[in-house]
Design a protein that fits this description.
With about 250 residues, the chain is an all-alpha fold. It has a domain of about 50 residues. It has 14 helices and no strands. Helix 13 crosses helix 14.
Length: about 250
């Protein structure tokens, strides 16, 4: 009798759930919301007592339902993108060192696959990538410029050597690119060249001194630079003095 009664009860409950799905679902949601802590504690206690069995069961399910699991996870990520992003940011900010170490290890172990992923993404999103790079470059231009200047000042010889080596290996492409840029930006290039020439002259830079000597910069020694700069400075002071007394002197430059 007991077995028959249990069977009837189970059949009744099943029929009720089928006929009242929304009501039952709403009741379960409300109950879960009202008992979050106790439910979480029950789940944790069960998992701690049955870790191996739970992990094995979950693994078996994932293996047998890969497509369904992937589809569910994708749908969940798309429906909760902002929440997940905020959660990742909070965790990342609290575990920066761990994230950096893990990312570095992953990159080193997956160089080829990551390169392939980046290439595929770029090919599929060229316009978006170009727009994002342009926006980032405009926002970071000053910081990047300062960083490059600081690096150059600290590594002048290495930077010059590397620049020369690259230029020697890419003469044709560099010349073509420079020519195209000058053609497309004639006014800006002319103004920049004029300003650069004026600044060189006023500051008596190394390139200006070499120009007055009519020698390539690479052939001018430091001692010769110092002597010629001193001479130019003296001539300029003399010219200023003569000008102050309304007399004319020829331009030694």
């Amino acid at each position: 009798m007991d077995a028959c009664k249990k069977a009837k009860e189970a059949a009744y409950q099943k029929a009720y759930r089928e006929a009242n799905k929304e009501t039952v679902a709403a009741g379960m949601r409300a109950w879960r919301e009202a008992n979050k802590e106790s439910i979480a504690a029950q789940h944790k206690a069960y998992y701690d007592a049955n870790k191996e069995a739970v992990n094995a069961r979950n693994k078996a399910y994932r293996e047998a339902s890969k497509e369904a699991v992937a589809a569910y996870q994708k749908a969940y990520r798309e429906a909760n993108a902002e929440v997940l992003a905020a959660r990742r940011k909070v965790w990342g900010d609290a575990n920066k060192e761990v994230v950096a170490v893990r990312n570095k290890a992953y990159r080193e172990a997956n160089v080829e696959s990551m390169a392939a992923q980046k290439k595929a993404y770029y090919e599929a999103n060229k316009e978006a990538v170009a727009a994002r790079r342009k926006a980032w470059g405009a926002a970071e231009m000053e910081a990047r410029t300062q960083k490059r200047r600081a690096y150059y000042e600290a590594n002048k010889e290495a930077a010059r050597a590397r620049s020369k080596a690259w230029g020697d290996a890419n003469k044709e492409s560099t010349a073509a690119r420079n020519k195209a840029y000058r053609e497309a930006n004639k006014e800006a290039v002319a103004a920049k060249g004029k300003a650069w020439s004026k600044a060189n002259t006023e500051q008596v830079t190394n390139s200006y001194v070499a120009q007055t000597l009519r020698l390539p910069m690479i052939e001018v020694t430091p001692n010769l630079l110092a002597l010629k700069r001193e001479q130019l400075t003296i001539y300029r002071l003399a010219r200023q003095l003569k000008k102050a007394t309304n007399e004319q002197v020829p331009d030694p430059d």
